[in-house]
Specification:
single chain; alpha+beta; flagellum; Flagellar basal body rod protein FlgG; bacterial flagellum
């Protein structure tokens, strides 16, 4: 069979994956804290027709002759460029400026990480939770952050310090703090859905940021650029079509070979 046919098949598979990633990016264009994906390709093995030879006193060198055997998926990267900040005026909407992730604890006690800062009060005792009911945790990642339901007022500072006035007045309580975490390789984090990330073997261990920057009353939007995604969609579509053309052309050649017997 013709090598070009199998090369075309590999190209079609890769561009299908690229379209899948583009579709996911576009679907999450309005998802708070979403980080877009990117697909990269690399070539497959090359079949060597003849090797290289060095120069001699009477003859120059000859380059190797190789035929490529298609393309393969090299990586699917998560792009961590910051998204635009949308002002909401809601004190429990928190946007991270720069690097860092909020820590939330799921019902199983696992610590997960997120850039989505839309938080809410638990109906029971004023614990701060995300949209799935996972507790926002502070220093050490153990104790859920809490603002008593009867507090007269509260605010969240740029360094993550939670301040509130207890019921009946008195001294402002500043004993709790939102701690942002970072990783040596954020690109190695695993997406687990729900705007959440999980440590992986290649992300490094979560470490507390020394100078966190949090903006209360705002949310970080998705970093998806629709104009870029539509352009990449056109490129992927044309690449897919070109690879299908390779397959149909190879098929026509094979048909001609079969017809030689007639």
């Amino acid at each position: 069979m013709l090598r070009s046919m199998y090369s075309g098949i590999s190209g079609m598979k890769n561009f299908q994956t690229k379209l899948d990633v583009i579709g996911n990016n576009i679907a999450n264009v309005n998802t708070y804290g979403f980080k877009k994906g990117r697909v990269t390709f690399s070539d497959l093995y090359s079949q060597q027709i003849s090797g290289a030879t060095g120069a001699t006193g009477t003859r120059g060198g000859v380059n190797p002759r190789q035929v490529g055997l298609g393309a393969q998926l090299a990586s699917i990267d998560t792009i961590y460029t910051p998204g635009s900040t949308q002002s909401t005026g809601r004190p429990l909407d928190l946007a991270i400026t720069g690097d860092g992730y909020f820590q939330v604890k799921d019902p199983g006690g696992n610590i997960l990480f997120t850039r989505a800062g839309n938080f809410y009060f638990d109906e029971n005792n004023g614990d701060i939770v995300n949209s799935d009911g996972y507790h926002l945790v502070g220093t050490g990642g153990k104790t859920p952050l809490n603002i008593p339901a009867d507090a007269e007022s509260f605010s969240i500072g740029a360094d993550g310090t939670i301040s509130y006035i207890p019921a009946g007045g008195g001294t402002v309580n500043t004993s709790q703090k939102i701690e942002l975490m970072n990783f040596s390789n954020p690109g190695g984090l695993t997406k687990v859905g729900g705007n959440l990330f999980q440590e992986s073997d290649n992300s490094g261990t979560a470490t507390a940021m020394k100078n966190p920057k949090i903006q209360s009353g705002a949310l970080e939007m998705s970093n998806v650029d629709l104009s870029e995604e539509f352009t990449e969609m056109i490129v992927a579509q044309r690449g897919f079509q070109a690879n299908t053309k390779i397959i149909t052309t190879s098929d026509e050649i094979l048909q001609e070979l079969v017809n030689l017997k007639r």
